[in-house]
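User:
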Amino acid sequence: MFTNIGLRAVLKVQASVLRESSAALCCAASVKPWTNRSSLLSGPKVRSGSFAVPQPVRHYARAAKKKKTGPESQLSDLPPTMLKMDYAAVPLAQTTDDLVKRLLSLELASHKEKLQLKQEQLIAKVQRDESDRSSEEVQVAILTARIRNYQEHLQKHHKDKANKRRMLMAIDRRKKILKHLRLIRYDAFEKVCEQLGITYTFPPEYYRRATRRWMAKKEFCIKVFKAVQKQKAEQRLKIKQSSGSTDTESAKTNAAEI
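Assistant: Predicted structure:
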């Protein structure tokens, strides 16, 4: 008798455990795969005798950020295996092992050294002879390398006012040299612009800084000019009308005399 009562109690406990486990499995199956894992591990929450399914947490995939590709640098055409300018003419540097060549190449060179080498390449395109270092063509080449370097720097650091001022000063200096070179040696001027890729724009014949005071004065002068033209047109119309009336009166008097 006691054994039957014990068996019944054990069966009741097992049945209740099976019911709870089946309910938990049904709840977990109804939850979508993007549900938060912590909510599944904690099990279903019971509210007023029924199982409450937690809300799914959606993790949407984010698009990969595109890297901003700026304009191509003037130093990008320099190969990294090229030797530095100080070691290019040394014959021993050409016969050394690969490790030493790498140390002497542009791969580990600073930006200043690369810019110096680029400047020498631009000078070699326009100089008159090998010993020419002070002609107007060479000065234009040096200023061109500096201006392009300033432009690349300001695209990354647009609030650098000091370098912007230096760039504008270099542009003005190059304009003056090109203007003088165009007047005295036009063939050299064309060669410099073609070799260095410079687009020369002619300065305006008349230039005045557009300030608020000047704009207001110009607008007032235009209004005065229009008012004067309107008055002159009215005066011309009155003169025509008066001349027309005198002609008709003279015609009437001539007719009466006849």
